[in-house]
Structure formats: C-alpha cells, structure tokens
Amino acid sequence: MHGFRARLDYILKHNYVINRVFNWTASSFMKVWGRFVPMDEKMVIFSGHTRKYNDSPRTLYEYMLTHPEKFGQYKCVWALEDPEHVDVPGNPIKVKSDTLKYFKYTLMAKYWVTCVNIERSLHYKKKNCRYLNTWHGTAFKHIGNDAGVRKDYDFSSMDYFCYASEYEKKVYMNAFRTREDAMIPTGLPRNDELYSVTPDEIKNIKERLGLPLDKKIILYAPTWRESTDNGKTCAIKPPIDTEKWEAELKDDYIVLFRMHAYTNKLLGLKFNDILRDYSVYPNVNDLFKVADILISDYSASMSDYAILERPVLCFTYDYEQYRDERGLYLDYSTDMPSGILRTEDDVLNYIKAMDYEKECEKTRVMIKEKLIHLGGHATATCLVKLFER
C-alpha cells in the first residue's frame, strides 16, 4: 500500500492534467460533504512530515499536553501513516492519513496544524477553520512553484505560516503564494530546543546512543534525489569509499549517516564501527546536538544545525546537475561556508585541514545570521497565534 501511495503521489505531482482533474473533482466533493459535517470548535488535527508523529506538529502537541491549564479543553486528532503501531502520548484520536475518516476529521476540526499540508493540495477549507503551517525547513533547493514540476501551489488559505528570516519569507511567498499577512516570524517550533543545548545533555545523548566520549562526531545527512523510475524508488548513491573514510578518520571521528525520509533505497554504502547508520533514529535533533560537524548537500538540515554554530560542509558531488535540473536559491561557491566539495577527497582533506573555530564563525555569519536568525520561542508564539480570540 505504501508503494502504491508513493506511486500515486508521484503521478499527481508530475502529470499536470491528471493532477488538475483529480484536484477539481476531489475538492468539489469535499466542499459538498463539508456542508453536512458540523465543525467541532475544540478539535485540533495534527499532521507531521511523511505522515509520522514528528516535526513541529509533535512539538506543538506535546507543549499543549504539558500545559493543560491552557489547552486541556481541546480534543486532539493525529493523522498517521500507521496509527495502530504508533504510540502517541495523551491518548489523542489517531486516524490513518488520507482515508475517508481522515478527511472527515479535517472537515470537523476547527484547527489544522501541519508542517506540510492538511488538505493534500485540495481546496475545501472551511471559512472559520484556522490553519497553521510551520513548514519543515529552510529551502536551499527550489520548492513549490519554483521547482518546475508544478505551478499550482497555492497556500493562500493558510492563516499562519512560519518563517525564520526574510530570505525564507521571500521564498515561501513566491513558491507557495502564501499571503504576507499570514507570515509569522517565529522559526520552527521543533528547533526551539537547539537554542539551549548543554554539555551534560550532549554527554547523556552520546551515552544513550553508545557513542564514544573521546571522539568527535560527524553527521552526514544528504537530502533525497528525484526518482529515476517513475516513483517506484527514491534512491541515493553517495560516492563514498567506506574503507577510505575508516582509514582517514578512525583515530578521531565517528560518522553518523542519516538518510532523508523520502529516500527508500541506499546504494553503495557499507556500515561499520566508524560509519554508522542512524536513518531510523526518531529524533534528528539529538544527532545535531552530538555532532561536531555536519556534512550535507541541499538539505534544510544545514540551517537547523547552524543554530548550534558548528561547521557545515557541503558535499555536493552532483552540484551542476542538481542546480540545472532541480534549481538552487544560492550559489554554493560563494554563499556556503565550505564552498563546493565535489569528491570524498575534498571532504576528507577539508576536515583534516579545518580551523574549527573559524569554521564555526563562518556558519554563524553565512547561514545562521542570513537564513535562520529568528527562533528560540516558536512553540509558544505559534500556539498564541493559533488560539487567540
């Protein structure tokens, strides 16, 4: 079923005619159905990234749970890919995403909270429904209407849309047609915890993950690559010789690998004591906290990690191809701290030669101050906005 859904999502994204017919038909049906479904003034529906219990909606929900004096009267619904096998605290209603029951709850709920979208690109939101979209990360690669696949992204029905910098605000308003009066300068709720990390917390996470305290940690977190088989798989093949990395880094480093949630096929990598796979570990912020260096490419993880003001390396082995096919908002040769690192030798040599403190400063100036300078109190701010009278 998951493979069928991925295939359907791919077709709807890449075939304009099918997308238009489906959206018009489904939106019309939802509008008619909505006339017969009364709104529950105290119901909130949450939807995370890739239909999981995660990201900023999880942060907002758990904040509500810990503040019952403010939010105890609300009835919460979580939309999930596999609700029967996901533990969610607080005993909310759990519903399988994209089923008829799911869409019925979207019609019932007065409040929608997501980091992607609730309505699945359909147009049926009720007038009195209040819609908060936190989004899920800074855009380095083209998104929405800028990405060239579709030009019909329209988030103008959203009441609140989070951004962390003027750079993000400009991108989102153009790529998604968000209204300027809906934009709220908060940063991401899920990143609030990255503004107050302590040495004891880092030590505790390392011990919990079984990481050595006497070695530095590198997190390698590349983004996904477009499917080459019409949506059947979304594969990635980093040009990495595991034995070379082990030989070069084993005395001083451990490398943690984290695959993007969209990637479902990893090619060519072999894991060992030096290169370890943390793709299914549930909390990426824990990995950010313990990492001394981040290696990525076009992923929003670079801006999240930059909050910690630690070195960010851009291992962009397919830079020209990716820039020309997907599109990038920045020129990596001048706008990113490490510039363009095209080969694994470039990456390994950069690590061995780096002045760590200077790299931290470059991250602060080039990424944090320009792309993600707003944040730290997003959770409380978002909830005040959402529920204000």
TrEMBL record:
Alphabetical UniProt keywords: Cell membrane, Membrane, Teichoic acid biosynthesis, Transferase
The UniProt record lists the keyword Isomerase: no
GO terms for biological process, alphabetical: teichoic acid biosynthetic process
Membrane topology: Peripheral membrane protein
Subcellular locations according to the entry: Cell membrane
Predominant location category: membrane
GO cellular component, one term: plasma membrane
GO molecular function: CDP-glycerol glycerophosphotransferase activity
InterPro entries: Glycerophosphate_synth (IPR007554), TagF_C (IPR043148), TagF_N (IPR043149), Teichoic_Acid_Biosynth (IPR051612)
Entry keyword annotation includes Protein biosynthesis: no
Family to which this protein belongs: Belongs to the CDP-glycerol glycerophosphotransferase family.
Annotated protein name in UniProt: CDP-glycerol--glycerophosphate glycerophosphotransferase
